[in-house]
């Protein structure tokens, strides 16, 4: 492998912010919304299964999840799996797709991901985890980082697990301060930050340490940075559901939030049109694909869009009733019609 590309992590300011990768949430459309509201220092993609990319049938879906748009830069591709060969194959193409780095997910608590041996399940197979990191690093010039949890079942696991990862010299290590068993049911273990930072300093001092868990907004990130100066960055996940402007100190008005929702709808429609055009073109070129599709172009699924309504429509009179009405819709045209009526009340 030739000389590495620049390490974007080393260029980030102390106390930098990151939008957490969230399945079904942090796709290219929503990242553009967050960028408009006020972007973090670094974006992550949704995580992508390396075995999907390695298979002919799953590759199109994997590439769709790895879409990069202009407002993303800089952005890190997050990948997961358990097959070292597939890690190498996927890692080898990411630089050409516009990414500044790749991150290996070893912390996702989803039971389906864990049943497949990926995400937090890697904590139980440390030798395999190390092999996956090494194969990814060998296959790419991009800087390689890791996101994980304290342990799978017990908090104390971090004292063996995190050094295992740190000895592989990741450019950055993001630690969600809970175990897989704890999910998000207990407060994040901030009391362990200093001990984790000490492990980093002893084993891999060049690795940038990022903390994740219960961080809601930029103000809180700044408070934590003052309390724990040994931490380099702060990752916000669910906080974006409470305030899409969470990477700023701006207090959005109802009009701001409604405007963001309309912007999200515009982006969704544009993405849907692009998706349909690609399907139609593929059907013209691939008779077998056209046969599988019964000659019908199918647009993006609308239902997943509904999970975003609560981000924009909350904490103002009538918000709950408005969300309830929107949950009965089946297309963006109807959503716009309902929003327009509400705006005139």
Give a verbal description of the structure.
The protein is of the alpha/beta class and 345 residues long. Helices cover 44% and strands 12% of the residues. It is built from 16 helices and 8 strands. It has helices spanning 8-11, 28-38, 50-54, 59-65, 84-94, 111-115, 126-139, 158-166, 193-203, 218-227, 239-242, 254-285, 287-292, 309-312, 319-326, 332-343, and strands spanning 16-19, 43-49, 75-80, 101-106, 144-149, 172-176, 208-212, 233-236. It has an 8-stranded parallel beta sheet with strand order 1-8-7-6-5-4-3-2. Helix 8 links the parallel strand 5 and strand 6 (172-176). The radius of gyration is 21 Å and the shape is globular.
Strand order of the largest sheet: 1-8-7-6-5-4-3-2
Which structural category do the helix and sheet elements fall into?
A: alpha/beta
Mean pLDDT: 93
Percent strand = 5-15%
Element pattern in H and E: HEHEHHEHEHHEHEHEHEHHHHHH
* Distance between the first and last residues' Cα: 62 Å
Global shape: globular
Strand tally: 8
Q: Helical element count?
A: 16
Main sheet characteristics: 8 strands, parallel
Cα-based radius of gyration, to the nearest Å: 21 Å
Low-confidence stretches: none
Helix content: 40-55%
């Amino acid at each position: 492998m030739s000389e590495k590309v620049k390490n974007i992590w080393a260029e980030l300011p102390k106390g930098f912010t990151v939008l957490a990768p969230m399945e079904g949430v942090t796709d290219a459309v929503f990242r553009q919304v967050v960028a408009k509201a006020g972007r973090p220092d670094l974006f992550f993609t949704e995580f992508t299964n390396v075995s999907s990319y390695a298979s002919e049938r799953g590759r199109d879906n994997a590439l769709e999840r790895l879409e990069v748009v202009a407002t993303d830069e800089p952005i890190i591709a997050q990948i997961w799996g358990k097959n070292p060969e597939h890690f190498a194959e996927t890692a080898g193409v990411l630089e050409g797709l516009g990414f500044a780095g790749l991150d290996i997910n070893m912390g996702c608590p989803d039971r389906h991901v864990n049943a497949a041996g990926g995400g937090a399940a890697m904590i139980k197979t440390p030798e395999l985890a190390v092999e996956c990191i090494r194969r990814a690093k060998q296959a790419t010039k991009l800087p390689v980082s890791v996101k994980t949890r304290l342990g799978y079942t017990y908090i104390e696991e971090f004292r063996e697990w995190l050094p295992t990862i740190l000895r592989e010299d990741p450019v950055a290590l993001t630690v969600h301060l809970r175990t897989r068993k704890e999910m998000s049911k207990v407060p994040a273990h901030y009391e362990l930050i200093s001990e984790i930072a000490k492990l980093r300093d002893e084993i891999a001092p060049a690795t940038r340490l990022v903390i994740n868990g219960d961080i809601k907004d930029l103000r809180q990130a700044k408070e934590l940075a003052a309390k724990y100066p040994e931490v380099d960055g702060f990752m916000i996940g669910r906080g974006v559901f409470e305030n899409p402007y969470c990477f700023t100190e701006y207090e959005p008005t109802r009009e701001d939030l409604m405007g963001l929702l309309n912007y999200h709808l515009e982006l969704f429609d544009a993405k849907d049109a692009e998706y349909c055009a690609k399907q139609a073109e593929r059907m013209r070129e691939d008779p077998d694909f056209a046969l599988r599709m019964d000659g019908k172009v199918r647009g993006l699924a609308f239902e997943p869009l509904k999970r975003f309504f609560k981000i924009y429509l909350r904490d103002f009179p009538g918000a709950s009733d408005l969300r309830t009405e929107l949950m009965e819709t089946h297309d963006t045209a109807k959503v716009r019609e309902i929003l327009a009526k509400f705006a005139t009340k």
